[in-house]
Every structure is written in C-alpha cells, then in structure tokens.
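Slide 14.
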Amino acid sequence: MTAEILGTIVGIIYLYWEYKADPKLWIAGIIMPAISLVVYWQTRLYADFAINVYFLLAAIYGLFAWRRTTPDDAPLPITHIPTRHLIHSILITLFSWAIIAHILTTYTDSDVPLCDALTTALSITGMWMLARKWLQQWLAWIIVDALSAALYVYKGIYLYAALYAAYTIIAIFGYRQWKRLMTGHPK
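Slide 15: predicted structure.
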C-alpha cells in the first residue's frame, strides 16, 4: 500500500472523528503526518512536508488539551475564538505566510511557493485553533482544504486532491455540526 493511499485512509478517519468532536482524532492526527512526510517530500511540497512536524507536535498538544477539564470536571467545551486571539491569528498567519514564501522561493526548487506557503501558514493557525476547540477553526480549514485540493491536482497527487476536496465539503458541515454541539443541539 503506498503512502498516499494509507495517508488518505487515515485522513478520512481523522476527519470523521474531528466532525464528531471525538478526542480520538488526535490519534489519527499523530499517525497521518508521519505518513504524509513521504508524499510531500516526493512531490517537492516542502512547506507541507515541514508543517507535518508541527502537526505531529500539535496533535500531541491537542490530545492533552482535550483531556483537560473545566473546574467543574466538564470536558473542554467548543467555544468561539476570543477577539484578541482572532486578531493575533490573522497577524501570525500573514507573517508566517511571508516568511515561509520567502524561504521556499529563496532556498528550494518549489514551483508553487506562494500557494504552498499559504496553505502551510493557515494550517498552523487552524491546528492551533482546533487544539483550543474554537469553532472558527473550521473556517481556516475550509480555505486550506480547498486550496490544497487544487494544489494537489496541479502536483498530480490525485488521492490527496480527492481527500482534500472531501475535507472542504466536510469542513462546511463540520462548522455547522460544531455550532450545534456548542449550543447543545447535537443533531
């Protein structure tokens, strides 16, 4: 089984658990980056390759953060991102995009440095927001997933392109589902 096929399977499992706000998503979130490293290196998507180290570390953080409980022993709730964190997230995303694009343009043979850098910068933000269980993480993923699907078609990694196209659609539904879960209406 190739890395792309295995990564796609684990990615589908991950997304299902994320949609359900199931803490098991972090197990798949640890496995998938390890698999994806091979795919991204072979296709010269160096920023995507590098971000998977971050994804691995963020998944470990998320696993522990989601196990944390509130003072009344309730699980970490789904909430809106606080305004100050939203502003910081936007600024960090833009700064990261500029730095990553510069690195890819200057030091690699990437033929898609701006798009690769943008999906990477937004992924950093989206993963951090997911670990904090903020509803708006889905909005970041909708953008990342749609751009990634197009990028992967361009790069010829069609299973990942299909996976990220599915991610885009499911992220839209995920946003709606988490909004319902947040208000106490799971269906």
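Speaker note: The CA atoms of residues 105 and 111 lie 9 Å apart.
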